[in-house]
């Protein structure tokens, strides 16, 4: 194994672990911090620091007006309505449950592609089986939390988390269909800043700013952790791993993140774990596995046809 591959695997390990811890950090952060303001500060500061990092390394930022505009939509869908709204939902639902709900995102991606006419030719047996398992995972998620759905805010938190996952998927599809030629770090920074601005606006209407008088040191430390480790370092590692390793291998983080989030929620916050929780987790992740396997098979067949 050469030096580049070793660094790439280490970078992937960082992504697998760190992005799994962000759900716990979000949960701790919003216990005393207004949730929209918390996410807004995280994203704007992370985006600004990332742009500064690019300036230090490259001396200048090269990006067209068209590419800047193209980052607004994923910034709103993925950063604000996706990541940011999950933070609000975690005021009412456990961090492990939020991670489990977010893990069904590939199902949304296929649905959006199919409705948009992008993926009607790529459904195969593996993808259909994966979708079935994913849907069963969703059913199990609800079954395991039926007793809690009557709790004030809990049902709304679950619904909002599902909607935010859908928005992230929509932003993913949009980004895939309208790729930017600009530097990936610049694109990410612009998305962070755009999403953060939208979250600031949401904070004006949705947050109780008097809560700022009761912000704890734990919430502040969670914010710093999410800015530096969760957003900047983990994203840089993700891009490095994606550049030097097969994309199918890099996608393994999607299987590991929910597991880490569930374990940490149990160990640190005493969040409940039942056998149905684990069954929902395994069912959902097996669904994601078969969906990825189906896509890989379809891609291989397409490449074989193109080479003929």
Question: In summary, what is this structure?
Answer:
By secondary structure, this protein is an all-alpha fold. Helix 2 packs across helix 10 and helix 12 runs antiparallel to helix 13.
Provide structural commentary.
- There is one protein chain.
- The protein is mainly alpha-helical.
- The chain has a domain at 1-33 and 215-271.
- It is built from 13 helices and no strands.
- The longest helix has 33 residues, at 275-307.
Q: Taking all residues together, what is the mean pLDDT? A: 82
Give the helix/strand class.
mainly alpha
Through-space gap between termini:
33 Å
Poorly predicted regions are none
Order of helices and strands: HHHHHHHHHHHHH
- The total of helices stands at 13
Helix content: over 70%
Residue share in β-strands: under 5%
Number of strands: 0
Oligomeric state as shown: single chain
Radius of gyration: 19 Å
Largest sheet at a glance? Answer: none
Outline: globular
Q: Which SSEs are present, and which pair or pack?
A:
Blueprint: H1 3-29, H2 35-58, H3 65-70, H4 72-89, H5 95-102, H6 105-115, H7 125-143, H8 154-177, H9 184-206, H10 217-244, H11 247-250, H12 253-269, H13 275-307
Helix pairs in contact: 1-5, 1-10, 1-12, 2-4, 2-9, 2-10, 4-8, 4-9, 5-8, 5-12, 6-8, 7-13, 12-13
């Amino acid at each position: 194994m050469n030096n580049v591959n070793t660094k790439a695997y280490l970078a992937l390990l960082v992504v697998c672990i760190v992005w799994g811890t962000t759900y716990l950090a979000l949960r701790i952060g919003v216990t005393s911090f207004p949730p929209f303001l918390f996410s807004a500060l995280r994203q704007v500061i992370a985006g600004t620091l990332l742009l500064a990092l690019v300036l230090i390394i490259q001396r200048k930022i090269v990006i067209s007006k068209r590419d800047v505009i193209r980052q607004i939509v994923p910034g709103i869908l993925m950063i604000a309505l996706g990541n940011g709204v999950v933070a609000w939902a975690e005021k009412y639902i456990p961090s492990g449950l939020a991670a489990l709900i977010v893990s069904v995102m590939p199902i949304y991606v296929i649905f959006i592609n199919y409705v948009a006419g992008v993926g009607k030719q790529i459904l195969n047996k593996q993808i259909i089986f994966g979708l079935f398992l994913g849907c069963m995972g969703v059913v199990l998620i609800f079954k395991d939390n039926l007793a809690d759905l009557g709790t004030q805010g809990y049902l709304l938190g679950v619904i909002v988390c599902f909607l935010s996952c859908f928005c992230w998927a929509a932003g993913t599809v949009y980004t895939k269909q309208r790729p930017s030629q600009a530097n990936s770090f610049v694109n990410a920074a612009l998305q962070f800043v755009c999403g953060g601005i939208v979250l600031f606006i949401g904070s004006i209407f949705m947050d109780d700013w008097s809560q700022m008088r009761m912000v704890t040191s734990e919430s502040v430390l969670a914010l710093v952790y999410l800015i530096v480790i969760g957003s900047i370092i983990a994203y840089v590692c993700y891009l490095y791993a994606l550049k030097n390793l097969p994309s199918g291998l890099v996608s393994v983080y999607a299987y590991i993140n929910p597991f880490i989030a569930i374990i940490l929620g149990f160990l640190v916050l005493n969040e409940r774990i039942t056998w149905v929780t684990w069954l929902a987790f395994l069912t959902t992740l097996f669904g994601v596995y078969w969906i990825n396997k189906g896509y890989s098979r379809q891609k291989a067949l397409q490449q074989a046809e193109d080479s003929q």
